[in-house]
Amino acid sequence: MSITIQDVEHVAKLARLDLSEEEKIQFTEQIGAILKYAEKLNELDTEQVKATTHVMEVSNVMREDEVRESLPIDQVLKNAPDEDEGQFKVPAVLE
Q1: CB under 8 Å to 24, separation ≥6 — which residues?
Q2: What is the value of pTM for the model shown?
Q3: Count of domains for the chain
Q4: Is 92 contained in some domain?
Q5: What range does the domain containing 26 cover?
Protein backbone atom coordinates (compact mmCIF):
# COMPACT_ATOMS: atom_id res chain seq x y z
CA MET A 1 0.00 0.00 0.00
CA SER A 2 1.36 3.38 -0.90
CA ILE A 3 0.31 6.79 0.29
CA THR A 4 0.16 9.90 -1.84
CA ILE A 5 0.45 13.58 -1.07
CA GLN A 6 -3.30 13.80 -1.76
CA ASP A 7 -3.88 11.26 1.04
CA VAL A 8 -1.79 13.35 3.43
CA GLU A 9 -3.64 16.51 2.35
CA HIS A 10 -6.98 14.77 2.94
CA VAL A 11 -6.02 13.63 6.44
CA ALA A 12 -4.58 17.07 7.23
CA LYS A 13 -7.84 18.67 6.13
CA LEU A 14 -9.84 16.29 8.35
CA ALA A 15 -7.55 17.13 11.27
CA ARG A 16 -7.72 20.84 10.36
CA LEU A 17 -3.95 21.05 9.97
CA ASP A 18 -2.30 23.57 7.71
CA LEU A 19 0.77 21.77 6.37
CA SER A 20 3.53 23.31 4.29
CA GLU A 21 4.62 21.59 1.07
CA GLU A 22 7.77 20.36 2.85
CA GLU A 23 5.68 18.83 5.64
CA LYS A 24 3.37 17.13 3.14
CA ILE A 25 6.35 15.51 1.44
CA GLN A 26 7.91 14.57 4.78
CA PHE A 27 4.69 13.00 6.10
CA THR A 28 4.10 11.17 2.82
CA GLU A 29 7.53 9.56 3.12
CA GLN A 30 7.18 8.78 6.84
CA ILE A 31 3.69 7.30 6.60
CA GLY A 32 4.74 5.34 3.53
CA ALA A 33 7.65 3.86 5.48
CA ILE A 34 5.37 2.94 8.37
CA LEU A 35 2.89 1.22 6.05
CA LYS A 36 5.69 -0.63 4.25
CA TYR A 37 6.96 -1.90 7.59
CA ALA A 38 3.44 -2.92 8.66
CA GLU A 39 3.00 -4.88 5.39
CA LYS A 40 5.81 -7.19 6.57
CA LEU A 41 3.36 -8.54 9.14
CA ASN A 42 1.34 -10.04 6.28
CA GLU A 43 4.30 -12.33 5.56
CA LEU A 44 3.93 -14.06 8.94
CA ASP A 45 2.09 -17.36 9.21
CA THR A 46 -0.44 -16.81 12.00
CA GLU A 47 -2.71 -19.79 11.30
CA GLN A 48 -1.67 -21.62 14.48
CA VAL A 49 -1.67 -18.51 16.70
CA LYS A 50 -4.59 -18.25 19.09
CA ALA A 51 -6.36 -14.88 18.98
CA THR A 52 -5.85 -12.85 22.14
CA THR A 53 -6.73 -9.44 23.48
CA HIS A 54 -3.77 -9.30 25.87
CA VAL A 55 -0.24 -10.56 25.65
CA MET A 56 -0.44 -12.01 29.15
CA GLU A 57 -3.25 -13.95 30.79
CA VAL A 58 -5.63 -11.53 32.52
CA SER A 59 -8.10 -12.46 35.21
CA ASN A 60 -10.79 -10.49 36.95
CA VAL A 61 -9.17 -8.49 39.73
CA MET A 62 -12.40 -7.08 41.13
CA ARG A 63 -13.41 -8.06 44.65
CA GLU A 64 -16.55 -10.01 45.34
CA ASP A 65 -19.69 -7.94 45.87
CA GLU A 66 -20.54 -8.03 49.55
CA VAL A 67 -23.52 -6.51 51.32
CA ARG A 68 -22.38 -4.31 54.19
CA GLU A 69 -23.56 -1.41 56.32
CA SER A 70 -23.67 2.04 54.74
CA LEU A 71 -22.17 5.07 56.40
CA PRO A 72 -24.53 7.04 58.65
CA ILE A 73 -26.22 9.89 56.75
CA ASP A 74 -24.79 12.55 59.10
CA GLN A 75 -21.26 11.33 58.38
CA VAL A 76 -21.94 11.25 54.62
CA LEU A 77 -23.23 14.82 54.61
CA LYS A 78 -20.56 16.14 57.00
CA ASN A 79 -18.46 17.68 54.16
CA ALA A 80 -21.36 18.59 51.89
CA PRO A 81 -21.39 22.30 51.03
CA ASP A 82 -25.18 22.30 51.37
CA GLU A 83 -27.84 19.72 52.15
CA ASP A 84 -31.60 19.55 52.19
CA GLU A 85 -33.66 16.82 53.86
CA GLY A 86 -30.73 14.40 54.00
CA GLN A 87 -29.62 14.92 50.39
CA PHE A 88 -26.80 16.82 48.73
CA LYS A 89 -28.03 20.18 47.47
CA VAL A 90 -26.26 21.43 44.36
CA PRO A 91 -26.83 24.33 41.97
CA ALA A 92 -29.21 23.59 39.12
CA VAL A 93 -27.44 22.82 35.83
CA LEU A 94 -30.51 22.98 33.61
CA GLU A 95 -32.84 25.89 33.16
Answers
A1: 5, 8, 9, 12
A2: 0.48
A3: 1
A4: no
A5: 1-63
pLDDT for residue 91: 87
d(CA 38, CA 72): 58
Task: Please tell me the total number of residues recorded for the chain in this structure.
Answer: 95
Measured between its terminal Cα atoms, the distance across the chain in Å is: 53
Q: How far apart are CA 79 and CA 89, in angstroms?
A: 12
Q: CATH no. for residue 57?
A: 1.10.20.60
Q: Distance (Å, rounded) from C-alpha 35 to C-alpha 29? A: 10
- Proportion of the chain in helix, strand, coil states, percent, rounded to 5: 40, 5, 55
Alpha-carbon distances of 14 from 7, 11, 17, 27, rounded to whole Å: 11, 5, 8, 15
pLDDT at 95 over 80: no
